[in-house]
From TrEMBL:
Lineage: Bacteria, Pseudomonadati, Bacteroidota, Cytophagia, Cytophagales
Catalytic activity entry: ATP + protein L-histidine = ADP + protein N-phospho-L-histidine
Originating species: Hymenobacter glacieicola
Name recorded for this polypeptide: histidine kinase
Protein's UniProt keywords contain Transmembrane: yes
Keyword Kinase: yes
Residues of the signal peptide: 1-20
Amino acid sequence: MQRLLFLCFLFCIAGKVAVAQTTEAALLRKLRAQPADTGRVRLLNALCYELHDNAPTRALAYGEQGRALARRLQDQPGLLQALLNLGGCYANLADGPHALQLQQQALHLARRLNNVDGIVRSYAGMGGVYHERNDTAAALLNYRRALERAYEPRVSVRTQLMLFGNLGNLYFYLGRRQEGLVFTRRALQLARRTGDRAGESLYLADLGSFYLQMDQLETAEGLLRQSVMLVEPLNSPRFEAGHLELLATALLLKSELEEAEELTRRALALSRRIDYKERVLDAYSLLAEINASRRDFEEAFAWQNRFRDLNDSLNSRSRVQTLTALQTRYETAEKESQIRRLTERGAASQQRNRALWGTIAALVLGLGGMGLLYFKLRRSREALAVNHRFLEETTQELRQVAASKDRLYAIVAHDLRGPVTSFAGVTELIDFYLKQGDEQGLRRLPDLVRQSAHQLNHLLDNLLNWAVNQTGELAFRPERLPVAELLNQALQLYANTAEAKQIKLQLIAPPDMAVWADSHMTQTVLRNLVGNALKFTPSGGTIQLRAEVLPGSGVRLSVADTGSGMDQNQVKALLTDAGPTNHPMRGPRSGTGLGLLLCRAFMQRQGGSLDIQSMPGRGTTVSITLPAARA
């Protein structure tokens, strides 16, 4: 079962975006009559692109010719296309380091030419190489850089399709299925909008393979049947064979063995007709699995032997192709070295000729030297000024680091005082209750001690979360969280404190509402907001926790108290990005602001927001906004 699902994934990432409209034979006919100009560069690049997937070794020769001719003609756009195509060839031949080098050269050239399509293709190509090497972090970084400019008008549809398809495959490989489905569907919609029937069939097959891996066999079968129906009239045996094998895999998992075998044999016949060895290999593997499911182990063993023999042959061919590519690469480097040596000899000859005119031009050179010296002096002054500014900026950053350390010490000294004072107050209550003979009050003392411990633990949690958030090491793991359960947990945590202060807690939240957020971050935010409300609400007051749906796809959670409130200057200070202040705030809303700053940081990490509404004497309402979870 796992082997079949892995085979589906290989089918998904092996396909390309569209079938080339111009055949190799037609391009070769045009090339024979084309002189050595920029038009010949375009034809060589087209041939290299046409062959870079199916015959990368043959494509290399055309790509290297195109690159050399583009350099000789100083054809920068042609050179850019040659570098991109060669990068794809070497990537298909498992020469990843050289492929990355070519893609990076193409990226620098595309930036110099302000060629947005070339920039996006370069990043997408580098992402593909890193994905092939299982360096998913680097692959995702390059794909995201490509995605930043993928929607600009000068980016071709072919480049967008390649990027969206590759991103969908990478996200699904990372287990981020929702994002993988989003980008694959985006590629499917683009193919449909542009009338690309082959691309539409390919991305329908991709979606089918994704649902196949998620064990949604009915959905997968429907999508794969659509892809087969679309590709049959296109006369594209490569695509049709791949789609048939994917559909056969889905039917095999559903134990519909007769139709699965029929489709696999059709795919095998198509693959043999075009000598597509890799697809023949996959058909052998599928037939072995089908016969094994029938418990016809003798027939399964025969198909497995064919698979093994062909696999050994393909591995040998792959090694030969890689060696041929290396030989072509080094032969090209040798030719470029010879051209460079001839160029250097010509430059030396020109140098000797110029030396004959040196005496006549001595006075002119002297004046030019003085002017150059003056220019260098001015440049040196500018460089010194730049270095001075850099040193000032560095000094300012060091001062900010020292100030941050001082602020953290002030936070610890100030906020630890409250819980410690609470413990001291408990001892005074013990004396008071003993003198009064109040046994009921003594029984409540353990709850008060426990509450003080919770407050101290809550403060330490805030300090730890703040430190981890500052270093960027806190992981963000969103999930579906019921709103009523979140708010109820926050209320239960502070129920004893509210009862001791004679404060009424209210909860208004629909039972079926949910948000898409990180559980730890959201609970920390709610604990801080309810704790602050209790801290600044007098006895006999009310604290209300409310949840409501916003227009669009958001949910607002609010904590409202009936405390003394704040003026607008205090609210503005709490919402600044400067971090905790050097000195605790004074007045009705005292504190260092660490808890609220941590709340704002956690909301930013989750794509949400935090807002404060307050007026002196009318209480305070703190609201957070989070994305709503889909049903």
